[in-house]
Specification:
The protein is α/β, with parallel strands linked by helices. It has six helices and eight strands, in the order E-H-E-H-E-E-E-E-H-E-H-E-H-H. The chain has a six-stranded mixed β-sheet with strand order 2-1-3-8-4-7, with helices on both faces. The chain is globular and about 45 Å long.
Length: about 200
């Protein structure tokens, strides 16, 4: 049975809610998966989130799907690359690779999402905040700890309720649609992992 780690973040700064956690909670209210899906909510703090992630990945997951909030984004972004860089231009991990690229074929997942009527795109820069750090560290820990985990990161738009509370004219997405996008990703990994002819990762 496929084992998947699914993570999201707690609220931060001006946001009393986080769309990544809202989508995760919505998903778990109806998800019927063939996989063992373990959910986690991470603090918006680099050191604490890093330690939680390292400890979680030690449980040997097949895949990790990390969710984060992206205010201003009009679509769901499938992040391809985690950079070893913080906003202050210091590395996340000294003497570690400059970047890790997700081994998953995100363009195939994007096609699946769009086929389900879910707007999405593959993004090649996850920013320089905690979302980027989690994507980078998830892959770095897998390599350094010799784990089987293949990781991906989904940046989610704000919900309409969040935009209304902020009094802003920003794009938003219904939380049920975002939860559906995560379910599509889980199903895609489950199907491809069980079919050696359609593995969802590059052989390179």
């Amino acid at each position: 049975m496929t084992k998947i780690l699914l993570t999201a973040f707690e609220p931060y700064d001006q946001w009393s809610e986080n769309s990544s956690w809202l989508a995760l909670v919505e998903l778990t209210s109806w998800l019927d998966s063939r996989s063992t899906v373990v959910t986690r909510r991470y603090p918006v703090d680099f050191e604490a989130a890093s330690e939680r992630l390292r400890r979680d990945l030690a449980e040997h997951y097949d895949f990790a799907i990390h969710l984060g909030q992206a205010p201003g984004s009009p679509v769901i972004k499938l992040e391809s690359t985690g950079l070893n860089l913080r906003i202050n231009q210091c590395p996340l991990i000294d003497q570690a690779p400059a970047a890790y690229r997700s081994p998953l074929a995100l363009d195939h997942l994007r096609a699946g999402l769009c086929g389900e009527g879910i707007p999405s795109e593959v993004s090649h820069h996850a920013g320089l905040y905690l979302c980027n750090a989690v994507l980078y560290l998830s892959q770095h820990f897998a390599v350094s700890m010799q784990l089987p985990t293949r990781s991906m990161f989904m940046h989610l738009p704000l919900t309409p309720g969040q935009v209304a509370k902020a009094g802003a004219n920003w794009p938003s997405c219904d939380v049920r649609l975002m939860a559906r996008a995560v379910a599509v990703a889980i199903d895609w990994l489950e199907n491809a992992a069980s079919d050696s002819a359609t593995r969802p990762w590059s052989s390179a």
